[in-house]
Each structure stands twice: as C-alpha cells, then as structure tokens.
Specification:
Helix content: 55-70%
Largest sheet: none
Radius of gyration: 17 Å
Number of helices: 9
Shape: globular
Structural class: mainly alpha
Length: about 220
C-alpha cells in the first residue's frame, strides 16, 4: 500500500512534453492550410455575434459543431491516439458535444446569439476573442516554436474555450457546458504534469466562462 504514496501525476503520463508538442507541429504541417479556414470560421462566428438575426445562433452552433467533429477525427483520433490510448474516449466526448450543439443550437434553436451587452455578454465575447487570437500565442510565449501553435477549430484547447465563451453569452442549456469544462480540467492537469508554464490558461478561461454563466442565471428573471 505504501508504494502508491510514491506515485505522482507524472507517473501516469504516457508521453514526454517534447513528444506532445512535436505532435502539434506535425499535425499543423499535415493539415495546412486548414488553419486559415478555421480562422475564417472563427471570424464568421464573431460576425454573426455582432449582428442579431434569428438564424445567427443556428449558424454559430453549426460552425462550433463542425469544429468539434474536426478535432475529434483529425486530431484526437488521427494524432493524439498515437501517444495516448485514452484519445478514442476523448474523441467520443467531442463527437457527443458536437451532436449536443446540433440538437440544442440548430434543432431547438436554444443558442440566443445577440450583440454583446453587459458583463456576461462582453465577457463571453472576450473569451471567444481570446481563444481565437490570443490563446494560440501561448506556444511562443512559453518558449515553443511557432510551428506548434494550437488554433481554434483544429486544436482542442482553444476550441473548447471559444465554445464556452459562446455558451456563456448565448443563454445556452447548462448541460452543454459539461464536456467542454471537463476537457479544460483534463488538459490543464496534463499540462501541469508536464510543467508547461501555460497549464492554467485553459482551466482559468473555462472557470471564467462558468462564472459568467452562473451570473447570467442569477440575474435572470424568476
């Protein structure tokens, strides 16, 4: 029994930091120029966000669902599965979230996307902008090469953070938050175990989104 006390989180890590980040480098090279397409999709969400029309929530949900499906297939199954046996289960979670976005956002039209207003609306908007344009820069700030950038729509961390920003501002059902929040905690724990200086970025952004969503619920009329 005493042997278990000698284990740390690092004892269960299946790969080295070098292998993990090299995976993103090879992934980026293999899918180019998908990064440009993903950026255009992110900007499209911002454009939909700034103009209120009945169909804008459905369009944003469709874009987010597409991104979750891409990450599930191209990254988690296509790349991450080569170094982590649990990747297939993570991919299943991403597919489930994509289907939930389709159900809630497209079929039920329950993502109310309106121009930012108030602390919740602007907070969610800022979180999305952060995930789209700032979070990818974590790689060079942490001393990693530009070739290892993680982009919205094609890498899991910025995709989940951006989604949480939309959900917080769009009066989304609470159950849509569960899988993105779980991934953010899991990713943060993985990066923390590897000693990455940006380990707390994704969990902190997720926590802020959840706090904003909670604030919105408290302010909602009874």
């Amino acid at each position: 029994m005493s042997e278990w006390t000698t284990y740390t989180l690092a004892s269960f890590l299946l790969f080295s930091p070098r292998t993990y980040y090299r995976l993103f480098e090879l992934y980026n090279l293999a899918i180019w120029p998908a990064q440009i397409v993903a950026l255009m999709l992110g900007l499209a969400v911002l454009g939909l966000w700034l103009r209120r029309d009945a169909w804008h929530g459905r369009a944003a949900a469709a874009i987010l669902a597409t991104c979750w499906l891409w990450v599930a297939g191209a990254y988690l199954l296509g790349r991450y599965d080569t170094i982590n046996w649990a990747a297939k289960y993570f991919a299943a979670g991403f597919v489930i979230e994509a289907l939930l976005l389709v159900w809630a956002g497209i079929v039920r039209n329950r993502l109310v996307l309106a121009p930012p207003a108030g602390i919740v609306g602007w907070g969610g908007f800022v979180i999305f902008v952060f995930a789209l344009g700032i979070q990818p820069l974590a790689a060079p700030f942490a001393g990693r090469p530009w070739s290892q950038l993680e982009f919205f729509g094609i890498a899991p961390d910025p995709t989940t953070v951006a989604t949480l920003g939309v959900l917080a501002a769009a009066r989304a059902p609470a159950w849509l938050f569960v899988l993105p929040a779980m991934w953010c905690v899991l990713s943060g724990a993985t990066l923390w175990t590897m000693g990455s200086p940006d380990a707390l970025v994704t969990p902190a952004a997720a926590l802020l989104a959840l706090l904003l969503a909670g604030l919105r619920v408290r302010r909602a009329p009874a």
